[in-house]
Amino acid sequence: MIPRRRFLQAAALTTAAATVPALPAHAAVRAAGHEAANVPAQQTAQVTARREKEGTLTGLGPASVASPLGNGEFVGGVLYAGSRGLSPNVVGAYDLAQDSVTAHFDIPTGVGIWAMCKVGTDVYVGTHAKSALYKIDTVAGQVTKVADYPDHYIWTMASSPDGKVYLGTSEPGRVWEYDPATGQSRDLGQPAPGEAYVRSIQADATHVYAGIGTHAHLIAINRTTGEKRDLLPAAVADRDWVSSMDMSDTHLACGLNSLGELLVLEKAAPENYKVVKATAPGEKYIVSVLIHDGHVYFAGRPSGTFYRYHLATEELEVLGVPYFEAATHRILEHGGRVYGVQDSAVFVYDPAAGSLDYVNLVQRGFKAAPEEPMSVHSDGRRVYVGGKGGADVHDLATGQVSRLAIAGEPKTLLTVGETTYLGVYTQAALYAHRPGATEAELIARTGNQQDRPRDLAYDTRTGLVIMPTQPEPGHMNGALSLYSPRTGSYETYRPVVERQTVYSVAARNGVAYLGTLIQEGLGLPPVTTTARLAAFDLVERKLLWQVEPVPGARQISSLSCGRTSLYGMAGTGEVFEFDLRRRKVTKTIEVGAKGGELFVTGRVAYCTDGDKIYKIDLRSFTAKAIVEGLAGEWFGGEPKLALDPSRRALYAVRGRDLVRVAIDGR
After folding, report:
1. For residues 364 and 355, what is the distance between their CA atoms, to the nearest angstrom?
2. Does residue 495 have a cis bond before it (omega within 30 degrees)?
3. How far is the C-alpha of 358 from the C-alpha of 12, rounded, in Å?
4. How far apart are CA 651 and CA 627, in angstroms?
5. Would you call 43 helix, strand, or coil by DSSP?
6. Cα(316)–Cα(310) distance, rounded to whole angstroms?
7. Per DSSP, what are the bridge partners of residue 125?
8. Closest C-alpha to 208, from 169, 175, 243
9. Half-sphere exposure of residue 38, counting CA atoms within 13 Å on the CB side?
């Protein structure tokens, strides 16, 4: 395991030490506000569950409360910072002179704000899913939606010297121009046809510069003629993304994935360029850049290190680690200082003094609210709800909720003994948390171009924790990682199921059963058509067999072992029984509207599609809904469910609230 303190020291390397911030204000213990808040839940849970009718819901308050930021923009002495994952999302106005968030502006549509820019005193805000453009008149204090766009995400925006707004979108990767003078939008097309993402953008008097992924391009678009030219040097043409960008009168500075490189080139002569490698161990992403006062400031991940590159001397400095592993969504300059927008906070670097400070915006009044959760898990005494920047931990005995801060997104959790394991996006990282600890410990990052943990399982015969992962955008072949708590070994196998991602896993007697997803890295068109069920020998470390259990299914969303058979749920909402000896599907039933979690307990199973919870009689293979109307607002629309170890309760989300569901398990 890599202790936080030792990793931070290694990442900082030379120069100024960073101030390690306190946890966000909402990370302090808070009351859950549910009707059983004062009941010693752990002592009475099983008795209560037996008393309650199956399907009885008990509210446990907001599932995960957070204040994650996606971008920011200065107008005068006020930083306007945009949220993501809240409902509604907001732009908070942080007044530097008052050291306080003095106003919030609701952004009523979309699940988050990744893109912001300004024209004069107006701040423009781009949302995603659904994509819309809003204008905040900071003088009048008014918000107006000015445009809608058909693309899934608005990732990036910039304004030109003559006051037009340029937007980079995904699916497809396209550039739009919005003219505030006329209120009209113009489609500038796909800078690199076939590529899914425009992830960074800048504009000057003559050109729009678009950074592309999942195969890197840097396209200059003539604003008058529409002519396009790729400026990316051939030496870095095999990179994944031009993921961040800033511009001066003479230079472009771009962050390249996934080798942690900064590209600096002259606009007038792009053949004059420099590639600068970020120096923190394991650095992969340059997530934000700023050209200011003869320097390029930039931030990396996964380390969270803050760098400065001198254009004239070509000297690279490490300025510190504002917050271990945190993503810096935007770097801005104001009043001679450099500001980095991170989740819930900004860091402030003063070049004159060489100081690096951290300002928690939640503590200064920024709105914290229920977010769309990403995962849910119970160890019997507490319920973990994963979200952006960590997990809310609900103590079932006291009703209190604390925040386990992690610089990432816990996508899946599993408890073995007294340790809870968390699979964390990005970097496909595995963390461990023990009850009472204020921090989770990093065990390993998967590497192998892996990005997104999909499930966790434990095999008692081999003592292995098993974590399948999805590759980074644009990359092939998911992986399967095996961690031994006894020896500390962490081994990754890629590919396991060729040209697919392993999405779900169950394990028994030294065999891991794998359910797949046909999507490999995001943005890469699937080359297979049907999800598979496979068996992997954990002792011999080899694939034993694979089949396609549900015709046309895009994914197997969950797997669970029964007494003699394996049970799975497909993305179509179909549940199947699979005879392991004969290697064939023996029973099927259409259950939910789409696939979610599935748990077998005795001769019944429970599953969800996010709106209903179903109970399946495994003998007759019939199903009935025991809960309806959850309308769970899961991040990405992927419904989750947790089984209490007592097998007398499930944990789900109703809207954005955590609920306990009584079950009888028979």
Report:
1. 21
2. yes
3. 16
4. 12
5. helix
6. 7
7. 116, 134
8. 175
9. 0
Q: What is the DSSP-derived secondary structure letter of residue 2? A: B
User: Which amino acid is it at 91?
Assistant: V
Q: Which of 579, 565, 519, 510 has its CA nearest to residue 542?
A: 510
User: Could you tell me if 172 and 203 are in contact, meaning their C-beta atoms sit under 8 angstroms apart?
Assistant: no
Tokens read off for 290: 């700023």
Task: Return the exposure string of 490-521: e unless at least 16 CB atoms fall within 10 Å of the residue's CB, then b.
Answer: bebebbbbeebbbbbbbbeeebbbbbbbbbbb
User: For 355-408, what is each residue's pLDDT tens digit?
Assistant: 999 999 999 999 999 999 999 999 999 999 999 999 999 999 999 999 999 989
Go through the chain and tell me how many residues it has: 666
pLDDT single digits (tens) 416-459: 999 999 999 988 999 999 998 999 999 999 999 999 999 999 99
Structure tokens at 339: 């500001």
Contact 202, 245 (CB under 8 A): yes
- Whether the CB-CB separation of 386 and 373 falls below 8 Å is answered with yes
Q: Rounded to an integer, what distance in angstroms lies between the CA atom of residue 116 and that of residue 93?
A: 13
- Report d(CA 663, CA 651) in Å as an integer: 10
Nearest to 442 by CA among 457, 430, 424: 430
Q: Name the residue type at position 549.
A: P
DSSP 368: -
The dihedrals phi and psi of 27, each to the nearest 5 degrees, come to: -80, -15
Please tell me the least confidently modeled range out of 28-42, 312-326, 373-387, 533-547: 28-42
